[in-house]
Amino acid sequence: MNRADFISAAKSGAWDVLVVGGGATGLGVAVEGASRGYSTLLLEQSDFAKGTSSRSTKLIHGGVRYLQQGDVSLVLEALHERGLLIRNAPHLVHHLAFVVPVYDWWEGPFYGIGMKLYDALAGKLGLGPSKNLSREETLERIPTVEPDGLRGGVVYYDGQFDDSRLAITLVRTLANLGGTPLNYTRVTGLLRSGPGGAIEGVKAVDEESGAEMEIRARVVVNATGVFTDDIRRMDDPDAGSMVTASQGVHIVLDRAFLPGDSAIMVPHTSDGRVLFAVPWHGRVVVGTTDTPVPEATLEPRALDEELDFLLTHAIRYLTRDPLPSDVLSVFAGLRPLVGDPDSDTKSISRDHTLLVSAAGLVTITGGKWTTYRRMGSDTVTQAALVAGLLERPSVTEDLKLHGWTDAVDPIEPRSVYGTDAAEIEALEKDRAELAERLHPSLPYRASEVVWAARFEMARTVEDVLSRRLRALLLDARASVEMAPRVAGLMAEELGRDDTWEEGDHS
Ligand SMILES: Cc1cc2nc3c(=O)[nH]c(=O)nc-3n(C[C@H](O)[C@H](O)[C@H](O)COP(=O)(O)OP(=O)(O)OC[C@H]3O[C@@H](n4cnc5c(N)ncnc54)[C@H](O)[C@@H]3O)c2cc1C
């Protein structure tokens, strides 16, 4: 997992499949391509999962919301993928009980029947039967749910995961399959066979050295989420807008606000949204909002009214009322909402949208984390046709992801590493100081920083704090306090000087 080696490899070859974008979608496409035996390169302008893919609600789910909207086939597909993911990455995805608290007489039967349908759609890959709960049973599962007017609840089961750790696991899986993942490499243009001719590769810049490269490929896949239209316009400057962005914000609270093992799901807030309060890595994640934003950015900011909405609803459903000062962290992500694409393109649409332009640019967008594998599979099948590659069947339904082990306790902080956890422990045996905790409020140790820089392509302090460890999402203040130590460990590991160590790593 050496970035310098990957840069040399990127420049040297002509690739079968070149993927632009290192979020869930691009990683799904790249793993699919490499696992079918196509030579595959993935370019990410920032860090892997820096965009939306590290800012989700952390659920691997069929989407109860889609069921409410009557989109049964979508739920069916997502539930199937949920089952595969639990099988192929049990170290990263696990079962979680969700309780819908019931305050109105009709909600119990209504949501009870809905959840039975959800169970039935999951079939053999179901995680456990849903059931109606009495008021006492509901309070037993969620001791801090608002008891005033509570009639009972409905419990159902879904999957929970660590989004950026799954992304890093896919990066490692890609490399294990012989593919080349490259972060901090931005695509700046497309290579063509001649004016208006077919796309033959990309121009890219190494964001660390500033070096420019031209990389040839038989097919280029645009998997850039809310930035999709930027790449489409490199192909056709007159291409209309296909994607708009909608922001979703989460707040993170202490676990005391939601003790126990169950999450809360509110299917219909006063203004018609779905709201979750989910235990995650020893904290509680509450979200989300749905706010249209005019421009896509890698660092979206939560609006005051979004924070108000989340706090107001947390107060409505919990006995202990969180104050703004109780918020340990806030994170915001942008959903790519797909509108009508240009009419000169071929469209195969599910929840996700797959397009092929006249010049052969393959664009994949929409969908969700849960369906990343299916999106990858559909895309590679299409991309192989565009590139005239030998047709090969997908093998990812049964592909175990890097670090696979089913001997995991999801409560154990290092479970996300799977079999790599033993190797991280070995680092601590070699150098005792690496076993030191980085901060008293978080479980992370120095060894994990070394591991992230050495084997997970972490390049900045923020890569480590946000996406290798989840410190910045769990406790922003603790993260700031541990940043200098993380910078010191990284500087040593990456051979950086004092100026780098003392620099701005935000
Ligand atoms: C608030 C919120 C909550 C969600 N919760 C869930 C959930 O619980 N479960 C679920 O299944 N799904 C969830 N989703 C959906 C899921 O997170 C997204 O569908 C998924 O992460 C999108 O991944 P992506 O790869 O398409 O986009 P991104 O993750 O944004 O990746 C696109 C990447 O392309 C890169 N890029 C852009 N331009 C260039 C360029 N020129 N060169 C190189 N790279 C470039 C960007 O840097 C970025 O990293 C949620 C979404 C939101 C917004």
What are the SSEs and their pairings?
Blueprint: H1 3-12, E1 14-20, H2 24-35, E2 40-43, E3 59-60, H3 64-68, H4 72-88, E4 93-102, H5 107-122, E5 131-134, H6 135-141, E6 152-161, H7 163-176, E7 180-182, E8 185-192, E9 199-206, E10 212-222, H8 228-235, E11 243-254, E12 262-266, E13 275-280, E14 283-287, E15 291-293, H9 304-317, E16 329-338, E17 346-349, E18 352-356, E19 362-366, H10 372-387, H11 420-430, H12 446-455, H13 461-468, H14 471-474, H15 476-494, H16 498-502
Parallel strand pairs: 1-2, 1-10, 2-7, 4-12, 10-19
Antiparallel strand pairs: 3-6, 4-6, 5-6, 8-9, 9-10, 11-14, 11-15, 11-16, 12-13, 13-14, 17-18, 18-19
Helix pairs in contact: 2-7, 2-10, 12-15
This protein binds flavin-adenine dinucleotide (FAD).
Flavin-adenine dinucleotide is lined by residues 20-26, 43-46, 50-53, 55-59, 186-187, 223-227, 248, 288, 298, 333-335, 367-370.
Kindly list the characteristics that best describe this protein.
506 residues; binds flavin-adenine dinucleotide; 16 helices; alpha+beta; 35% helix; ten-stranded mixed β-sheet; globular; 24% strand; nine-stranded mixed β-sheet
